[in-house]
Amino acid sequence: MELPYVVVIILFYLGIYTIIMNKNLIKIVVGVNIVESSLILLLILISFKLGGTAPILDRKYELVVDPIPQALALTAIVIGGSLIAVMLALVIKIYKRYGTLNVDEIRKLRG
Amino acid sequence: MSRVHKIFRKFYKIGLVLFLAIFLLFIFDEIQNLDIKRYLSEHYISEGVQETGAINLVTSVLYDYRGFDTLGEATVILTAAATLSFMTPIKKVKMLGTEFTIIIYQTIIIIIPFLVVLGMNLIFFGHISPGGGFVGGVILAMIPILVTINYGITFSENKLKPNHKSLLEGIGAIGFILLGLLGIFAGSNFLASGQANFGLGNPGELISAGLIPYLNLMIGIKVGAGLAAIFNSLIKEG
Amino acid sequence: MKKKLLTFILTLALWLVFAGHINFSVFLLGTLVTIICSIISRMFAAEVFRLLLMNYEVKVSFVKIYYIFLVVGAFIYDAFLSAVRVSKHVFEINPSFSPKTVQIKTSLQNLPSIMILSNLIALTPGTLIMDFNILNKNYFIHWIDVRSEDEAALKKALIGKHEKWIAKIFE
Amino acid sequence: MITPGFLYLAGALFLFLAINNKIKYIISFLITTGALIITFYLTPGYSLEINFLNYTLIPFRVDDISKLTGLIFTLSGLAAVFYSINISSRSNLQLIFLFIGSSLTVVFTGDLFILYIFWELMEISSSFLIITVSDLTKKTGYYFFLMQAVGGLSLLWGVFLNHSATGSLSLNAIEAGIPFFMIAVGIKLAFIGLHTWMPQTYSKVPFYVTVVLSIYTTKVGVYVMYRLLSGINILAYAGLISALFGIVMALRQNQVRKLLSYSIITQVGYMIIGISIGSAAGITGAFFHLINHILYKTVLFMVAGVVIYTTGKENLEDLGILGSKLPITSLATLVAFMAISGVPFFNGYMSKTIIKEALQEPVLIWGLNLMSFGTSLMFLKFIYYAFFQNSNINLNRKPTISMQLGLGFLTIIMLLIGINPFLLENLTNIDVDINYFDIKLMLSGIQPFLWSVIVFILLKKYLVKEYRRFIYYDIYREMAKIFVKIGYKLSIYHNGKLSKYLLWATTTLIILLSLLI
Amino acid sequence: MINSISILREIIAYVFLITGTYFLISNAIGMIRFPDFYLRLHASSKCLIAGSISVLMGCIVLEGISYISLKLIIIIIFLLITNPVAIHAIAHFAYNYSIKPQKIVKNDIKQ
Amino acid sequence: MLYLILAIILSIIITFYRLIKGPSVPDRLAAMNSIGVMFLMILVLLSYYFERKIYINVALVYGVSIFMNVLIMVKYLQKPEKGGSSD
Amino acid sequence: MESAVWIILLPLLTAFFLGIFKLYSDKLFYSLVIVSMVIYLYLLILVINDSYPPKVYSIGNWGLLGINLMVDSFSAMFLLIIAILFITVIIFSLNYIKVNKHKFIILTYVMIAGIAGMVLTADLFNLYVFLEVSSMSSYALTAIKKTDKSIESSFKYLIMSTFGSFFILLATILTYYLTGTLNMAEISLEFKSVPFMIKSTIMFFFIFGYGIKIGLVPLHAWMPDSYEASPIPYNVLSSGLVMKSAIYALIRLLYVIFGVEFLTESGILNIGVFWGVLTFIIAHTLAYQQSNLNRLLGYSSIAQIGYITIGLFLGNEKGLIGGSFHILNHGIMKGTLFLVLGIFYYSLKADEIEDIQGLGYKFPVLSFTFVVAALAIVGLPPFNGFISKWLIIEAAIEAGFFYAAFFILVGTFLSLTYYLKVIIKLYTKTEKKTLIEKPDLSLKLPTFFLGSLCILFGIVPSLPLSLINNIPKFLLNNSEYIRILLGG
Lengths: 111, 238, 171, 517, 111, 87, 488
Ligand code: NA
Ligand code: NA
Known about the structure:
Chain C is mainly alpha-helical and 171 residues long. In chain C, 65% of the residues lie in helices and 11% in strands.
C-alpha cells in the first residue's frame, strides 16, 4: 500500500479521534478541519498519476493528472472552509454565553 | 468506580477509532489492487481544451463541465456569510488582538496594490494559468482583511460597508446565474458556453473559453466579498 | 498627475509581468484593472501614494533611484552578511551569544522610511526589532552579540548610514 | 341508496350549521328518523362496491342480521339523541352523531377495510366524546382511548394477517388472525381481563354519554364477533366465565352505573354464547338478545341518568327517589328489571329462551341458568334500593321532557316485543321455531328469577352492603408505569452532551461496519 | 562559446542555489539548536531571507531574461518587504507575550 | 536540483520539530513562517524540476498567504488566561 | 424540460436578489417574495405534471460529460412536498417571524434551492454540494433565534451533521475513484464490477452519513434539540423537507447506484427495516417523556422517519409507494401540527404542554386542526397518515417482515399515548389566558390549508398516489432509470 494513503487514513483517524475524544470546542473544530484535510488529500491523491503534470495544457503533455478530483477538492475546500467559519462563530457565541469551551458543559437542551 | 469507568470509556473510544482506521486501511489496500477507470477524465484531458477553450482544465471542470457545483459552493459561502452576519452584533464592536507597530502598518499599505493586481490577474487569467475566481477572490479578500487588522474594524467597515459587501456578493452570485442563463437564451442549456456558441477563441489567449472568464470574475467578486464579510463577522465579537 | 501616472505605470507593469505575455487585450484589461487597482488602493491606503511623492525635478529623481539601488543593495548585502554570521553560529559546537536589548532613536520622520529602515535593521547582522515607539521614534532592538559599548556604537553607526540613505529617498 | 350510517355522519357535519336550538332539533330529528326509516326499508341482499387503493371495497351491504342490528341501532339512536339533545353541547352532539354513524357503517359494511376504519372512527368519536364532555373525564377518556386503540390495532393486525393469508378483504373469508380479532372484539365486549375500561368509563362520564356509549360500543363488538368469529365453540365457555365474573363484580358495586356496566358484561355473555355455538338459532338468539339488551339496558342507564340529573348523585341509595317521585321512570325501571331478569312476557325472556334452546351442552345450559339467576340477583339489589329503601332525598329539578320521551319510547317498544315476541321475527324475516308461551319454557325461564328472589331475601344483609374498600388491580396501569419508567431512563441518557452523542454515532458506524466482516 | 557561457551560467546558478539551500538548512538547524527564542528568531530571519533570495537568484540566473525572471524578481521584492516585517511581527508578539530575552553566556549552552 | 529539493525538505522536517515542540506560541509561529518560506522555495525549484513554469504563479500566491497567516495569527493569538492551556 | 433547472435557480436567484433588496427596500423585498413564490408554485406544478416519463436536463448541454438533472416520479413527489410546505411556510413566516425576518426568508429560499438540487440532481458530487447548501442554511435557520439554546443546538447539529458529511464525501470520493465517473447511471453500470466488500463499505458510509441527517435512532440525539430551539416555521421545513431530503437522497443512491439486487444480497434491507423499527420504538418512548411540544414533535418526526425507513427499505413496490406517500403525508401532518403550535406560540408564547391547557376552547378551529393532524400522524383513519401506514404495513407483510409490520402497530399505539396527552391538555379547562397577539389570517390560512390536506389525502389518496404509484418503476428497476439518464 502506498504511503500517501496511509497518511490519509492517519489524518482521518486523528481527526475523528480529536472530535470524539476532546471536550474542548475549539479542538473539535480543529478535528473537523483535520478530517476535511484528509479527505481533500485523498481527492488529490486519486487524481495523481506517476509522472503526470498539472492539468494546465499550455502545450501537449504526455501524462496529465486527473483534473476532476482537483476541481472537486476546490469545491470541498470552500464548503469545508465555510463550515469551519460557521462553526467558529458558533463557538465564539457559545463561549460568550456559556463561559466555557467544555463541550459537556454546554447543555441546556436535554432529555 | 468512576475512574475505572472513565478509563474504560477512553479505551472504548480509542478502540472504536482504531477499528475504523484499520478497516479503512484494509479497504484502501483492497481498492488499490483494482483497475482504475478514468474514461471521463481521459476525455477531459484529450478534448477538454477544444471543448471548453480553457487550457486550465481544473477551471474548465469548475466553470464549464461542472459549473453547477460551483454555483452550489458559491451559495454555501453566501450562506455562511449571511449566517455569520446575523450572529454578530451590529453595535458595540470592540477590537480584539494585539496592536501592531507602525512598521507593520506601513508594509500592509505597500502591498495592497500588489494584492489587487495579483488578485485581478488570478481571476482574469484563471482559464489560461493556475488560479481562478476562488484564489483571486481570496487574494482580493485579503485587502479588506488586512485593512481590518491594521486599522480596526470600524475603519474597515467605514471604507467598505457590510452592506456593500453583501451587495457585491449578491452581484457576484446573480451574475453567475445570469451568465448561466445566457446559455438558455442562446438556445442551449443552463451554463452552456461552448455548446451555446459563445466563442471559445484560441485556447491560451486572454479572450477565449467563452463564458469561463466572466464566470471566474463573478466568483472572484463573490468569494472576495464573502470572505471579507466572514472574516469581519468572526472577529467582531468583543 | 505625475504621481498618478507613476502608480499607473508601476501597477500596469506588475500586471504585465503577472500576465506573462503582452498583446492588445492583455494591455487593455491591464489598463482597466490598474484603474480599479488605484481606486481600491486609494480607498484603503491613501498613504501609499505619499510613498511615491514626486514633486522634485527629474534630476533629483535620478538621484533617488540611485539611492534606491543603494538601499536595495545594502538590503541584500546585509542579509547575506548576517546570514553567514548566523549560520556560522549554527554550526559552531559551542555558539556564544551575549544578547542585549538596545534602544535606538531615529531621526526619520516619514512612516514609510521608518518601515524600510526597520526592514534593514532586521537584516542587519545580529539585530531584531522587538518594538517601535511612535512617540519618541525609538526602536527597541534585540542585539545578538554586543560585547562592549564600542561595538554597540559601531553598529549604531552602521544603522545610521542606512538611515541617511533612506532619508535621501523619502525626505 | 343512502346508508343510515352516512346519514348520521352527514348529520354530524350538518350540525355545524346549527346556530340555534331549533335548527339543532330539526336536523337531529330529520337525521335520526330518516335513518330509522331508511333502515326499515333496506332490502337484504343489496351491496355497493367501490374501488379504493386497488381494493374493491364494499362499504354497504345488507343482510338480515345487519338489517336487524341496524334497526335497533337507529331506533335506539333516535331515543338516545332525544334523550341527550338538551343536555349535550353542539360539538358533543356532533360526536354522538359521528359515533352512531360509524357504528351503523360498521354494521352495514361488507369488508374488513371499511370495518376497521369505522371501528376506529367509533373509537375516536367516543373517546373524544368522553374527553371533551367534562373536566372530570380526561383521564378516563385517555384510558378509554388507549384501551380501545389496542383493540382497534389488533383488529387491524388481524385484518392484515387475514389479508396476507387470503388476499381478500372480504368479511366472508376469515382464515387467519383470529386471535387478534378475538382481542379486538374482546376489548369492545369488555371481556373479562379486557373489561377495565368499562366500569370506570360508564360510571364517570355524564349519564347521557353513558347511555349513548352503552348502546353501541359493546353491541358493535357483538356484531363484529358474529361477522368474524362466529362458530368458535370454545368461546362460549369464555363468554360464560366472563358473564359470571360480571355477576360477581356487579354484586359488589355501590354505584348504579358501575352495577349496570358489570351487568352489561353478563348480558354480553349471552350473546357470546349464542354466537359461539354458531347455529342459526344461537345467532338469532344472540341478536335478539342484543336488541332486547339494548332496549332494557338503555332504559336502565336512562333511569340512572334521570336520577343523576334530578338529584346529582348516583349511589344505589339515592335510587330511593324512584319509588314515589318519578312515576314514569319508576315504571320504566320495573319493566326493564323484569325484562333483564328474563321474566316471561317481557322481552328479555324471549331472546334468552332462544339461546337456551339452541344450546346442546349441559354445562352451558346450567351456566346460562346461573347467569340468569345472577342477573336477577343483582337487579334485585337495584330494585331493593329503588323501591324498598326509603330515601329522604329531594328532587333538585325535574327531568326534561325529551328525557322522558326517550325513556318512554323505549319502554313501550320493550313491552311490545315482550308481549309479542314474533314482532322481531316478522320485522326481519327470521324464523325461529319456538313457541315462547309454552308453559315448560316459561317455567324454566322464570325459575332462576324465583330462585334469585328467595336467595336475595335470605342473603339480603350480605348483598345489600356497602363495599367500601375495593381491591383493584389493573395490570394495564402497571404496564404503563413500566413504559414511562423506561422512557425516563432513555431520556436521562439524552443528557445534552455532544461528546456522548458523537460516541453513539461512532459506535453505530462501527457496528455497521462490523456487520460487513 | 555559447556552450561555455551557458555552462558558466549554470555554475553561477548552482552556486546560488546551493548557498541558498545551505542557508535554509542552517536556518532549520538554528531553529533547533539556539537556546533562546529571540536567538532562534535571528536564525529564522537572516538565514531564511538570505537563503530564499539566494535560491531565487539562482533560478533567475538559470532562467535568463524572461517573464519568469521578472516574476521571480517580484517574489524577491515581495519577500524582502514582507519577511522582515513578519519576523518583526513575531518578535513584537513575543515581546508582548512577555517572553523576555535571556542573558546567555557561554556556559549555559554546554549543558 | 532534486538533491536541493530534498535538502530543503530535510530542513522543513527539522523545523517541524520546533513547530510541534514549541515551547511557546511565538516559537511555533516562527517555525511556521520558516516552513512556509522553505516550501515556497520548493515550489519554485519544483517548477524548474518539472519544467512547468506556471508553478511560479502558485509560489507567488503562496508567498502572500504565508505573510497573511503570520500577520493574522500574530494579531489574534493572545496570551492564554490563567488556567487555560497554552495552545 | 427547461423548468427543471429553474426549480433550483429560481429560489437561488430570489435569495440573492432578496439579499440585495433587503438593504434598500422592504416593499420590494416582500413583493419579490410573493411574486417568486407564485412563479415557483407554477413551475413546480409544471415539472410535477411532466414528470412521467422521466426527463433529463443536462446542465451546460454536456450530456454525460457534465451534471445532469433528472425528474422522475420520486423527485416529482418530493417537489410536491416542496410546493405544499414551502408556500405555506413562507406565507406563515411573513407575519410570524419577528427577529431576523429577512434573513429567515432568504435562508429559507437558499435551503429550498439546496433541497431542490438534491432532489433533482443525478450526479453524485453535485448531490453532496446541494446537501451542504441545504445543511448550511439549516444550521443557520436553527441558530436564527440567537438564544443560548438555539446556538447550542445549532452547534450540535453542525458537528453531528458534518461528522456524517465526512463519510458521505469519503464514499463519494471512493466511488469516483472506483468508477471514474460521477454520473449516477454510469456509476451504477461501473459498480457491477466492483467487489462486494468495497461496494458494501461505500454503501455503509452513505447510510451512516445520511443516517445522521435523517436521524435514525442512535444518530438522532441532536435533532430534538434543534427542534426545541429553532423557529417553528423552520421546524415545518426541517421535519418535512430537510430530514426527508436526506432519506430521499439515500434511497436514490441505494436503489439507483447499488440496485435492489445488491441491497437484498448485502442484507442492508434487513438492517434498514430493523433500524426503522428500533428508531420509532425508541423515539416514541422518548416523545412521551417530553414536556416541550417542539421537542415532542421532534421525537415524533424521528419516529415517523422510522416508518418511512421501513417502507423504503422493504425493497418491494408497495413499500416504496407507502414510504414515499408517508414522506408526503408526514410533511403535511407534522407541518400542520407545527403551524398550529406556531400560532399558539405566536399568540400566547405557549410551547410547553402545560402552556396549551385550555386552548381547545380559545381556538376551537385551530385545535380541531391540531387534533386532526395528531390523529393523522398517529395513523388513525380516515386521515392520510393511516393510508400510508396501511401501505407500509401491507408491504412489510408482503416482504415477510411480519415483526416490522406488527411493531408499526405497536408504534401507533405508543404515539397515541403522547398525542392524546397533548390533545387532552388542549381540552382541559383552565383560567383565562390573555392573548399577547391575535393571530391573523396569514397565519391561520396556511395552517388550515395543511390541515385540510390531511383529510383530503386520507379520503382521496388517489390524488397523490397517481403520482407516487410510478415511483417503484424507476427505483426497483434501476435499469430503466439508467437507460433514461444515459439518454437511451
Ligand atoms: Na354497552
Ligand atoms: Na359499551
